[in-house]
Amino acid sequence: MNSMRAPSSAPALSSRQIAGIAVLLVAACVLPFVLGNYQVFQITLALAYAIALLGLNMLTGYNGQISLGHGAFYAIGAYTAAILMDKANFPYWATIPIAGFVCLVAGFLFGLPALRLEGLYLALATFALGVAMPQILKHKGLEEWTGSSMGVVIVKPDPPGWLPITLSQDQWLYFFTLAWTVLLFFAGWNILRGRVGRALVAIRDQPVAAQAMGVNTALYKSLTFGLSACYTGVAGALGAIAVQFVSPDSFNIFLSITLVVGVVVGGLASISGALYGALFIQFIPNIADQISKAAPWAIYGVFLIALMYVMPSGVAGAIRLARRRWFDKARVAAPEKAASPPGRDVQV
Amino acid sequence: MELLVHQILSGLATGGIYASVALALVMIYQATHLVNFAQGEMAMFATYLAWTLMQAGVPYWGAFFITVAAAFVVGVLLERIVIQPVENAPILSVVIVFIGLLVIFNSVAGWIYSYTIKPFPSPFPQNSFLDNKYLSSHDMGSALVTLVVLALVFVFFRYTPLGLAMRAAAQNPVSSRLVGVRVGWMLALGWGLASAIGAVAGIMVAPVVFLEPNMMGGILLYAFAGALLGGIDSPGGAVLGGFLVGVLENVVGVYLGTELKLTVALVIIVGVLVVRPSGLFGKVHVARV
């Protein structure tokens, strides 16, 4: 895990990266007009997962705090959105920031005792949170709001009237989710590439040295927990609106494990990895389901173990490696052209 | 009052199961300082094996011992093949490998045996001499089996050369290797024993919770809570912790409703870790900076 690149300072993005992101954004805007409604819905869910994965990756990949219970925060976000819409008649768009804020507080509060827990013990505590969450949601005392095991049904939002073109509900929801994804990825990238990101990685790799250098370890760790939960909560709210339904049993421990799978497959401590991981956990089960109901999980398990052996940095790491090999070759061929700008290859 | 006594006693019976799984967790923790998240699913898989043997006509105790032996072998192989390569990797990688194992065992069991719930026989007939006013004969019988397992483990570690070698390997691997203990194999043996103990727990709990791929989820959580409460590096403490958690779970179930049982485990785990991370009987670790 030592070969992860530090969030680099100097030029933020190379021109090639900017071009790549532009192409990706254009493709993302064209996609819903090419695909059918169901596929658009699936990609909307994948985008929501991507936000959750970025949140979990901040905590686990960048800051080294293992969470096996992030499904709980996804559930809190989803329920916040659902209850606000169902009981308080909030418009759907207003529930997203509230869900994020509720999860920020919940994550920060859970992060406080988590400060005393390291590595394995934090994994244990969060695992317990993930296992216990469905039961808490089903509890009698909350039944009035959560509808117990019946769950809450949400009405699918219509596209607003001010749009110049007519969109289907699925297409509108897709663009709504895409906007949140772009916003949160941009914010996450800004947080992680600078001073804060360096502090997080320093806490992960050398906690004592980080503290000696003046990093407020306790504050950073609990804030990261809060921020990570906030991202996951926003994802939960977006996912709930897309699915139009929340119920306790859809937020069991396997959701938390799915998120871990996404982070590991996509690439620990990588922002783009969240996208690859989200596509993986959204589409692999659909394909594997045709073999057997259990097949997706068997594949997940094999991927988890195999990646830890051969490619701990996941898909993003593999792509990074391939790209570097490719450009190294190009550099040998034309040495004067491909001199990389200083500071881009800093290793932690 | 009658109700409370009843709940405490049946709490002790389920606590025995938690104690066994907690003991299995502690065995692996002592040897490798890792907590095996796949422990519950390994036990579940072993229970399915016992069920298959019984369906094929093997008598109960025959199936029981074959399963325990098979679980031992699988545990040793797992350590040698899957765990050893990541032994010195960062803790995150190891936890992810454990989660991978958990998922694989769970899904393969679902694949082979489907997710439908199956009844599992109890070896202790109803209305036998074990039956009494408070506990069913299965509760009594499984508590007895648990105690026998605990006694065997104690005797093994305290009085046999192999047990001594295993303790030495866990405590000081470098010196143990110098005096000729094969440390790697001792770890594998620890995994084998843990897996076998887990199999016993699985077979004993299956008549109560019924056989299905997710049956050990809650039990693993209680075992975690028990092991942490007693002290994760103390076998005796973990056993006591398991019993305590069993009783607590049942008593809370009476007063707060059964829907919060898993939350009790969560509260115990977080509470112990925050207030007294070494548990009741564990060693306090002092790290040198």
Q: Could you characterize what this model shows?
A:
The complex is a heterodimer of chains A (348) and B (289). With 348 residues, chain A is an all-alpha fold. Chain A has helices at 15-34, 37-62, 70-87, 92-114, 120-138, 143-146, 169-193, 195-205, 207-212, 217-243, 253-266, 271-288, 295-310, 314-333; strands spanning 152-153, 245-246. Chain A has a domain at 15-252. The N and C termini of chain A lie close together (9 Å). Chain B is mainly α. Chain B has a domain at 17-215. Helices cover 74% and strands 0% of the residues of chain B. The longest helix of chain B has 31 residues, at 2-32. Chain B is globular. At the A-B interface, helix 5, helix 11 and helix 13 of A face helix 4, helix 9 and helix 11 of B.
Task: Give the helix/strand layout.
The complex is a heterodimer of chains A (348) and B (289).
Chain A: H1 15-34, H2 37-62, H3 70-87, H4 92-114, H5 120-138, H6 143-146, E1 152-153, H7 169-193, H8 195-205, H9 207-212, H10 217-243, E2 245-246, H11 253-266, H12 271-288, H13 295-310, H14 314-333
Chain B: H1 2-32, H2 39-55, H3 60-83, H4 91-113, H5 137-159, H6 161-171, H7 173-178, H8 183-209, H9 217-230, H10 235-256, H11 261-275
